[in-house]
Specification:
Length: 474
Amino acid sequence: MTLPNVLLVVLDSVRAANTSLHGYENETTPFLREFADRTTVYTQARTPGVHSIASHVSLFTGYHVAEHRASDHEAVIDTDRTIWKAIGSAHGYETGLFTPNVVVTSASNPADAFDTVKGPRRRTTPFRSALAPGDLPGQTGYVEYLKHCLADDQPAFALANGIADRLSAHSSRSSEAERADVYVDSFLDWRDQRSGPWAACLNLMDAHYPYVPAEEYDRWGGPALRRLYATLPPGPQPREFLSGRPWWQLRAFEALYDGCIRQLDAALERLIVELARRGDLESTLLVVTSDHGEGFGERSRVRPDVRLIDHNWGIHEALTHVPLLVSRPGSTGGTRVDEPASLTRFPAVVRSAIDGPSDHRGFVPDGPVITSSYRVREPGAELPVPPADRERYFGPWHAIYKRIGEGVRKESVRRSDSAAVAIHDAQTAYRIGPGDPDRIDRVIGTLEDPEIVRSADGINGTVERRLENLGYMR
């Protein structure tokens, strides 16, 4: 039997609600909507976590976030337990990862599961033989770094590396080197060099903060909004909006986010057209999804006094409901699955495709769909609010989903807070009362630690700064 190729495309930070595939008013995903007619579309897909590291570990291993608990940027996992290592050793797949995602490639180690990695392309140290900010642990102040420069064998070059690092921080919004098309090209070049079965993951971050679509895709923002957005300094958005920046501005920036999704859709179209031209599409298990959504000031239904800002906390549908389309080898015509689906099923779907023709319900688990987040952790010093006001942001947050009639019922809990939510589709969901914390506790209580997380190492200063520039809070 000929082994199928495997391609996982993660549209980082794309929430289902802002895709025209899911009925959004802006035409953000015209290609995905057309491609849906040839794929299986899961209309109620949920991500297992609301952060890159947590969701990717679940995608790669099949474990729930509440099982593996890999929630820190510097988490170190046993990559031998990933689906990539498993099919590489058992079936001879060559594997590749293509992404500018610094969380997956630099801060933590999931990239170690792949034979080939094409990661972040922004270069910040022009003089490799001299000291650079990344050589020092943690966040280093200007004065402290200058002292280290003066003690270095090449003080002028070390100082130049520091200046380049800071300039890179402030130019992150205009970088074209890390857009989706660049990584699509890298993947296609890699694929053309493979003669046997291959398996790859593309994590494309055009829709991740900062929201900077190319002008041709900025169809709902415009120059005035881009000028306003330029006044937002690099670094985590929560620091700005929890410190008094008007909430209407965060809502307005959603228009730029929509342009970024449109840009991703165009890159995805080019990718799939090229796969079809090469004759690969019919022999490839293709999964298109997202690792989490994004918040633009929506109020938590569990804690209404908490508002969502990007994806630092919460368990709202804006963060958990993601697109999921699957094209299977030999499949024809479109199929719609309206039952709750979980991305933790990805390894099982891959194994099923290798074994033979697979069921279109592959992402629908036997038990409940579960989403969890363990952020923000106490004491929450990264939050720019008085200590007495931080508790409402603290995790863990848990949600479970099940089909009820024509819709989905969500039970969610955060410590002593809970909510039950009725969900019709990506555009329509509403709170119907308190949740059932006891039921959620019973479900979470059945999960066991798979022991795939090893001791975490600290991350260097350059990686820490890049995480901050991408909006991540420590």
